[in-house]
Model the fold of this input.
Amino acid sequence: MENEMIDQRYITFLILTKTKSYTKTAKKLFITQPAVTQQVKSLEKELQLKLVEYHQPHLKITERGEKLASFVNNITNQQAEFINYLKNPDLQKEIVFGATKSVAIFMVPKVIEDFSNNFDKINCVVTNTEKILNMIDNGKLDFAILEGNFNKNNYSYHSMQKERFICVANANNRLTQLHEVNISQLLNQTLILREKGSGTRCILYNWLKSLNLSFNDFNKLISFNEPTGIIELVKNDVGISFMYESLASKELANGNLREINLTGLDIFRTMNLVYSRNNYFSKYFNQLFQS
Done:
């Protein structure tokens, strides 16, 4: 891998953390396996840090090694982007950002509308929180708009707006007529929830866990990876679901859905602009959203 600005030993170590194999790393770099070992040991000696633990046949990256790899990965991605910017400052301005599926429905259209005045090409990738964070780590996204949990120590972020997390059902569901509903009254319902890796599923999981409950305590479970599909199922009285109020606002307003006033469900989540730490373009991203 050609990288003139970063010491080759760091690049070698970064590849090793991904392959977990000296042999595979050597093949990727077209060097010998002893050369890989020598570079990693040289790096450990210079930094005075243990980066790799090897107990044949298993190779393990230490905690400090993982942190270093994350930093190097971030730097290499930003280097490529910045050098490209320096070489081609007059090219069409392009931005690639990510958004979770819920956010894509009630926030992204306005974001794209605003961006259309600043960029010639706009590409929005819509998927779940887990996949988006992975794309940021690998330099495939400039930034993302997330509502799910993420490690705030690993990313830079800017708070945008807060969203209320609610339980919704078909307007004819008897529970919507009650002033207050206890969680135990909800367990005989069919729960419709998002797929694994989604932010809203994680929020619900953690809230239920705080009550010593799980998804399996509900009568039936349906997993669906499309928020609009979930809304349709709830409208058709197939089950109940949990989502952001903004996502269900139209159906709540026209009376197709109603909120279940669930005792103890007092959750507000912040929508965040998330990007790699120390990103050279971070001030620009923040200015776009503040303007």
